[in-house]
Amino acid sequence: MAFAKVTEIIKEAPSFTALTDLAAERLGGKVLYATDDFFAEKENLILPTRGIFITDKYTDRGKWMDGWESRRKRTPGHDWAIIQLATSGKITGFDIDTNFFLGNHPPHASIEAINLTNADEITDWEHLAWKEILPKSHLDAGSQNFYECQSNEIYTHLRLHIYPDGGVARFRVYGEVFKNWDVVSTSETIDLAAAINGGQAIACNDMFFSAMSNLIMPNRGANMGDGWETKRNRTPNNRDWVILKLAHKGTVDKIIVDTCHFKGNYPDSCSIEFCVSDNDTAVINNGNWQTLLPQQKLSADNEHEYVKEINTHNAITHVRLNIFPDGGISRLRLFGKISK
């Protein structure tokens, strides 16, 4: 296979890409099955970041590619893969990314979906009551291919079809987490900010080095890039900030601010404010902010836990994390109880 020209094509991302990637491996998504992944493993589809290209890297099956790639099909039919979402959710849009797949990308793809409660018992994925949520659509080579979802129902599993074969670097499924809050007790402690529960990072003043959405991902950060980091700011008394929408209205009992991996670039201090609103735009533009956690000194590469320092408050919907003057935070946890 010859690779005479390697290019990375970047398209302007639609607004739905600011939503949660429900299929993301680091959130708990899984690729359960593929008809063929001879050249490159199906699990690559949901890895973080866009696929990369290494010119001289080969395997015993051919050129190493960072994505899912099936062999050239010499029989009727086409290839497909089953993706289990990290959590059930309502899907808004997709990114079928063929980054660096230039002479070997599928010309078309489609997507089906289903809501399953007994996925562990399924052995025949082909003959289920799938619903088409993206008709057969054109794919550009070496490019992000953005499409809106044609359904507003709740789903747990997707089937990505490629026609007839080839390679897809990444598959993103953007939408909103669905959690049945009716079964969550008001005495149960949960992370109200966690993405897996439906928390969202909705605005910030700066995320030059890494994305605000990393703050609410599971586990501790994998490295310094797996957090929220702002550029160096030379303005005296600067404050950088990020606004999070909680998964559910509730009260906060314990806060963890984790500077994992941030050693020479952690913020000097932080504070957290809260507000109550059913309008995200109003919160971003002119929220009625009150202090939840007064300004606290931070240290490098450390989990900072606060309980007694938290101000008394009623149920809240949004928080604003302020860092002084700039720097990086790996994770923010807001443990508390929902209010019904």
TrEMBL record:
<feature type="domain" description="Allantoicase">
    <location>
        <begin position="28"/>
        <end position="177"/>
    </location>
</feature>
<keyword id="KW-0659">Purine metabolism</keyword>
<comment type="pathway">
    <text>Nitrogen metabolism; (S)-allantoin degradation; (S)-ureidoglycolate from allantoate (aminidohydrolase route): step 1/1.</text>
</comment>
<dbReference type="InterPro" id="IPR015908">
    <property type="entry name" value="Allantoicase_dom"/>
</dbReference>
<dbReference type="Pfam" id="PF03561">
    <property type="entry name" value="Allantoicase"/>
</dbReference>
<keyword id="KW-0378">Hydrolase</keyword>
<protein>
    <recommendedName>
        <fullName>Probable allantoicase</fullName>
        <ecNumber>3.5.3.4</ecNumber>
    </recommendedName>
</protein>
<comment type="similarity">
    <text>Belongs to the allantoicase family.</text>
</comment>
<feature type="domain" description="Allantoicase">
    <location>
        <begin position="198"/>
        <end position="338"/>
    </location>
</feature>
<dbReference type="InterPro" id="IPR005164">
    <property type="entry name" value="Allantoicase"/>
</dbReference>
<dbReference type="GO" id="GO:0004037">
    <property type="term" value="F:allantoicase activity"/>
</dbReference>
<dbReference type="InterPro" id="IPR008979">
    <property type="entry name" value="Galactose-bd-like_sf"/>
</dbReference>
